[in-house]
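Pasting two entries for a bug report.
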Amino acid sequence: MDNIDAWVWWLVGAVGLGIPLVVTAMPEFGMFAVGAVAAAVVAGFGFGIVAQVLTFVVVSVALIAVVRPIAARHNRQRPELATGVDALKGRQAVVLERVDGSGGRVKLAGEIWSARALDTDRVYEVGEQVDVVDIEGATAIVM
């Protein structure tokens, strides 16, 4: 075991840190793995253990300090393009069958949807235009 160079141990450590990255999807493990690879490079150039450990710590901490805030900011951003049922909210539909608090049918985005009035006392007759305020399952909630 004493014959194995330090850079090999750092690469083994990098692989070891890569495993939990894949299993847990925690990007911090990947940043530590990159730090271990940097330490392996330093060891390959013949620097001592102090320089290797400092390289590992500095690279790992720098990556966490720089990448985590960028990833968190990116994660907080809402998608600009609404898709699926979110894209249908706020659109207009045409009543095909009388819509009241218990049900009915509307034509929404070229498709026929079951619909229910948001205000249970309100009734929408055939041909009226209504606004979709929500989608619950396969039912458009209209007003």
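Entry 2 (this is the one that rendered wrong in the viewer):
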Amino acid sequence: MSTDSMDGGEADTRPKIEVTEDAAEQAISLLEGEGLDASEAGLRLFVQQGGCAGLSYGMRFDDAPDEDDTIYEHHDLRVFVDPASLKYIEGSVLDYESGLQAEGFHVDNPNVVSECGCGESFRT
């Protein structure tokens, strides 16, 4: 298990997954609403096969990270990413958007070469 934090220390050259403050606040609120402890549990961000472009994002809360997960900590939110998903989403930013049309989490992924028309799936 490897960890990454915004709390300083030695420079880490690995591509990171960033989380905006808005996304972290929303996720922590939902996590605590599920009765989970934010100091142990976290948001799992993963990539799965599916959608018209081939890949789609998935998110869920987990009680704890898996042994081979990379753990990112931003604004007191722990984000767990498995090794298979990391190669597709490294360098991404997780944000929370709210507006008239839609509200929810959005992944800004620099590795995407095309997305489907509805924005639910992508190809790298």
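Dev reply: Rendering is fixed now. As a check, the viewer should reflect this: The chain has one domain: 2-123.
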